[in-house]
Each structure stands twice: as C-alpha cells, then as structure tokens.
Amino acid sequence: xxxxxxxxxxxxxxxxxxxxxxxxxxxxxxxxxxxxxxxxxxxxxxxxxxxxxxxxxxxxxxxxxxxxxxxxxxxxxxxxx
Length: 81
Fold this sequence. Notes:
The chain is mostly helical. The protein has 3 helices and 2 strands, in the order βααβα.
C-alpha cells in the first residue's frame, strides 16, 4: 500500500493544491480507494509540484481550509471524470 504524503497541514492554495502535501484536492479525496499504481502516479506529480515550488521560491500565499463543501465538490468532480 502506497503511504499518503499527508503532513496534517490541510490548507488549499488558489489552485486547490494542499500547501502541506502538494496534492490537488481531487487527488486527496478517495486516496484509500485508489490502486497503488494510481497513488504512485499522484506521488510523481506531487514531487514535480513540490520541486517547482521550491525552485521558484514561491510563497504560500492565501489559503483556505478543506471544508466539507470543498471535499464533496472534489468527490463529485472525481466521479464525473
């Protein structure tokens, strides 16, 4: 089982990416329901996002908490794709 990169700092930036683990909200929801191959692919994207942010010296900027409404919207988005 691929371990979640969660670091318990759940805040989304304006692109809906968590500033703690660098996963998009649609990658966070249903993590435990995905295959190891799917989660491994997500971790590859996470590594790229994190590296780009570090190289750019990006500040976190404005963030917002992952609310129940945001979570449910992401689940709906996953179901429709």
